[in-house]
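Deliverable D2.4 — example input (structure tokens):
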């Protein structure tokens, strides 16, 4: 059996100008990065402005498990399957972060015969967007420390600097550090910390900005610190936002690539959904909607995280209206939710499946709360039995949703034509009535209560003293009427990763909140979620190699 990277290496890619031409994009609107990837010009947005939008399809999933769900694989395969049944579909995905690539999760370009290529480039440096975001973020941090060093006319309280440096790598040693050591010439000593690039507000801003002017305006609104009188200090006060835009102007342009079956894919932005809003850029999605009759996009982790933020943040800001949600699950993962250890998931266990399928039911019900029809995609494995499949089909019948057994990993687009047909049929027969879960004008606590009780199914929310203080400060600054973005474990509907299935009789604990004024939302931190992950005992990096001819192996 070939590995993902071996399958990708054997792909018969078209030159990127051919992929663009098939979409009606001229070479003048293409900025190539080699033969197989390119950025799309700013002028293209203007040229397509009057074109009617296609249908928006969101791919999400149940809570992730060690058994794997294959959400990106289904997303890629669905786009390929749409082409198989004669539909014009364009894929819109997030860019991978180097943290998971070298950590435990691996890459984010799909798998098997449903991948986005060139897979090695995409999973590594790609077109440099992540590096540009890192540089812009860290320039702002450097300006703050230089401002303090040069006399601190803004009277910044070095104990209340809010923005963190970032790095697109898992590195727990940088979570809490001391900077400015070594004498007066080396700066003012203070506590600092790093977060992973994909958790930075600059990443969120890039993904939500509509154009360069909006990007600059959002960067200027970043709350970077408080002064010694407790008054806010914004990025605009440091007069470096123009330089940040200069670093980000090319990164703001979406990237065009292709799938193994030469279906067009736009990849742009990459915020994590457990610690950020978890969606690719608004610009990429809007461009895909103009270029295709169907735009297939995904949101990170389970629907309680990425999909909720997609509906309540991205769609709200960008005036998007999803036509259908595809909810991905595996029978193995559902059995895991039923309490079966990973080592026993290949054996038939109908009782465990019946117990764990409540997780699937909850996610379907949650998506219906946004007024959008749902299709369930079961990423099929050869170990799935007819008795287990029957349980899933019966559950979906009870929920009133279509279900498709997809074999996309093994067969590519051919393995998902049934899914594609059911998605198209659902869009035609069940018109979307999308609406956000809550009114953003509500107080912060009311919005958090709505998410906790309606989506997580919690009994309520507990606030620490620090969280109470943060809410008062944010509302006093006039930012109480913007959406909330909850940082929470992806492994459970609750804030406890050990509680699988559909937890009951629990409350969510919010330990702190942070204003992301530039992005336009408030981040609420629950549990022990961290914005700088660490590497596992045996990192994926240990298995990656590059030979003398430049051929990469071990990347997945």
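Example output (designed residues):
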């Amino acid at each position: 059996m070939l590995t993902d990277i071996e399958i990708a290496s054997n792909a018969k890619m078209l030159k990127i100008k051919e992929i663009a031409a098939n979409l009606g994009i001229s070479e003048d609107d293409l900025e190539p990065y080699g033969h197989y990837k390119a950025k799309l010009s700013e002028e293209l947005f203007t040229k397509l402005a009057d074109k009617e939008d296609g249908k928006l399809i969101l791919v999400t999933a149940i809570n992730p498990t060690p058994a794997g769900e294959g959400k990106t694989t289904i997303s890629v395969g669905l786009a390929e399957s749409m082409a198989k049944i004669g539909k014009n579909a364009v894929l819109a995905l997030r860019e991978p972060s180097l943290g998971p690539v070298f950590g435990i999760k691996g890459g984010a370009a799909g798998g098997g015969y449903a991948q986005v290529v060139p897979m090695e480039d995409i999973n590594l440096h790609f077109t440099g967007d992540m590096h540009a975001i890192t540089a812009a973020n860290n320039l702002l941090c450097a300006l703050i420390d230089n401002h303090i060093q040069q006399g601190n006319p803004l009277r910044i309280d070095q104990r209340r600097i809010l923005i963190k440096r970032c790095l697109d790598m898992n590195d727990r040693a940088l979570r809490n550090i001391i900077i400015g050591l070594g004498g007066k010439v080396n700066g003012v000593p203070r506590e600092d910390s790093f977060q992973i690039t994909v958790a930075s507000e600059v990443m969120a801003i890039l993904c939500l900005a509509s154009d360069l002017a909006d990007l600059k305006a959002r960067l200027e609104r970043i709350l970077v610190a408080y002064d010694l009188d407790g008054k806010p200090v914004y990025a605009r006060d440091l007069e470096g936002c123009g330089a940040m835009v200069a670093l980000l102007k090319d990164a703001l342009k979406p990237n065009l690539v292709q799938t193994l079956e030469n279906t067009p894919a736009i990849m742009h932005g990459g915020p994590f959904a457990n610690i950020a809003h978890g969606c690719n850029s608004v610009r990429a999605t809007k461009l895909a909607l103009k270029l295709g009759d169907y735009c297939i996009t995904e949101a990170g982790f389970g629907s309680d995280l990425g999909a909720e933020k997609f509906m309540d943040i991205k769609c709200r800001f960008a005036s998007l209206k999803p036509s259908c949600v595809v909810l991905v699950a595996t029978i193995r993962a559902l059995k895991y939710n039923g309490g079966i250890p990973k080592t026993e998931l290949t054996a038939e266990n109908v009782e465990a499946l019946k117990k764990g399928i409540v997780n699937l039911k909850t996610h379907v019900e949650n998506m219906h709360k946004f007024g959008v029809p749902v299709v369930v995609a079961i990423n099929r494995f050869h170990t799935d039995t007819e008795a287990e499949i029957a349980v899933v089909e019966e559950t979906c019948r009870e929920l009133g949703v279509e279900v498709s057994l997809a074999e996309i990993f093994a067969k590519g687009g051919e393995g998902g034509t049934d899914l594609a047909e059911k998605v198209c049929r659902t869009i035609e027969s069940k018109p979307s009535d999308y609406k956000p879960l809550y009114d953003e004008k509500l107080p912060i606590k009311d919005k958090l209560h709505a998410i906790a009780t309606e989506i997580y199914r919690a009994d309520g929310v507990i606030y620490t003293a620090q969280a109470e203080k943060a809410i008062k400060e944010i509302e006093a600054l006039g930012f109480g009427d913007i959406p909330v973005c909850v940082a929470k474990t992806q492994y459970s509907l609750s804030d406890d990763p050990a509680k699988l299935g559909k937890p009951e009789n629990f409350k969510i604990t919010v330990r702190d909140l942070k204003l992301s004024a530039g992005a336009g939302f408030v981040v609420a931190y629950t549990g022990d979620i961290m914005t700088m992950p660490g590497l596992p005992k045996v990192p994926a990096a240990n298995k990656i190699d590059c030979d003398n001819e430049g051929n990469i192996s071990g990347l997945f």
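The longest strand covers residues 508-516.
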